Amino acid sequence: MNCIERFIATVERRPVDRPACWLGDPTPEAVPALCEFYGAKDVMELKKKCGDDFYAVEIPYRSPTCSAIFAAFDWYRNGSNVDVEHRTLTAEGCFAQCEDLEDVKKVEFQWPDPALYIDPKECQRLVDEAPDDRVILGMLWASHFQDVCAAFGMENCLMNMVTDPEMVHYVDDRIVEFYLKAMTIFLEAAKGKVHAILIGDDMGSQRGLMISPSLISEFVMPGAKRLIDLAHSYGVKVIYHSCGSIVEAIPLIVKAGADVIHPIQALAEGMDPEELKEKFGNQVSFCGGVDTQELLPHGTPQMVAAKVRELREIFPTGLIVSPSHEGLQKDVPPENIKAMFDEAAKIY
Fold first, then answer.
1. What are 209's strand-pairing partners?
2. pLDDT tens digits for 211-269?
3. Handedness of CA 72, 75, 79, 85 (dihedral sign)
4. How many CB atoms within 10 Å of residue 230?
5. 39, 114, 168, 312: which one has the fewest Cβ atoms less than 10 Å from its Cβ?
6. Residue closest to 290 by CA, chosen among 262, 318, 323, 319
7. Burial of 42 per CB tally in 10 Å (0-12, 13-18, 19+)
């Protein structure tokens, strides 16, 4: 099987020659040591050399206030750059003092138009750079729940979901429309070359959900379903991301149509791979399972290999072996990444 065939078979839970394996999206601080270890000049060559089945493409977004689509909304309306080091969900955004929908509309927030800040030619160039034999994964994120939390400030937003849901829905709907348009621009430009899109929202803590399943069903899943349906209309698979203990939300994510749930956060409560396989293995595929909290940074290559062997046994198909957080940190020894890939690469 090639990488693409292996991915499709994994998503459809058909037999595979070996598990698909994804390095994730290492942080800039983690890249130099990995490149040095593998003798790679850049991330593209690193992915080839380590045996990654995937090639992730960040959807290019450049506006006056940011250079990343996951930080497209200037909720503070001060023209500041709200990229990753400045972004927060807890600081009060421009809707913080709103008490009802009329107040929200009076704010007159300037909703960005992704068509102004996403260059289709740049999308096409980035996709064309990907190796022909790898799964091309568009990193849209489209974290509309997190964005709406930032718009009000998280505490305000969670209270408003109960006391005045109308204004939360109003803001969320406009955020979702933004991401739907962004996805359309990207997929149209990519000309059928993209195999999967990653979207999602962090809804879990280490011990459980941050909000109830009923609130997830009302405020998170409708937007997710619209995004998933759009991706599917282009023949693109959807990997749905949420960190933490999300076992109670998995039925809702499955119902929304996600093809893969990412990640299996290994140490979060209720996210035991064997239990997930038993409960949901016939309904959805998974990605992750190789713990990034303790095992990868502090374990030995032998321990990492043993974990991958265990995951392969539990999931003979239906699992993309990957670190349990896509943003690999610099405290992970490259030797442990090699152990993960070497064990995953063994043919059944």
1. 204
2. 999 999 999 999 999 999 999 999 999 999 999 999 999 999 999 999 999 999 999 99
3. negative
4. 18
5. 39
6. 323
7. exposed
**Distance separating alpha carbons of residues 22 and 263, to the nearest angstrom:** 11
Q: What is the distance between the alpha carbons of residues 239 and 270, in angstroms, rounded to a whole number?
A: 20
Q: What is the crossing angle of helices 221-233 and 144-152, to 10°?
A: 140
Taking alpha carbons only, the member of 198, 177, 183, 251 closest to residue 221 is 251
Q: What is the 3-state secondary structure (H, E, C) of the chain?
A: CCHHHHHHHHHCCCCCCCCEECCCCCCCCCHHHHHHHHCCCCHHHHHHHHCCCEEEEECCCCCCCCCCHHHCCCCCCCCCCCCCCCCCCCCCCCCCCCCCHHHHHHCCCCCCCHHHHCCHHHHHHHHHHCCCCCEEEEEEECCHHHHHHHHHCHHHHHHHHHHCHHHHHHHHHHHHHHHHHHHHHHHHHHCCCCCEEEEECCCECCCCECCCHHHHHHHCHHHHHHHHHHHHHCCCEEEEECCCCCHHHHHHHHHHCCCEEEEECCCCCCCCHHHHHHHHCCCCEEEEEECCCCHHHHCCHHHHHHHHHHHHHHCCCCEEEEECCCCCCCCCCHHHHHHHHHHHCCCC
Q: Note whether 253 and 275 are within 8 A (CB).
A: no
* C-alpha 39: how far from chain center: 28
* Burial (Cβ within 10 Å: 0-12, 13-18, ≥19) of residue 244: buried
pLDDT in tens, 131-187: 999 999 999 999 999 999 999 999 999 999 999 999 999 999 999 999 999 999 999
Q: What are residue 233's phi and psi, to 5 degrees?
A: -65, -20
Work out whether strand 237-241 and strand 285-290 pair parallel, antiparallel, or are unpaired: unpaired
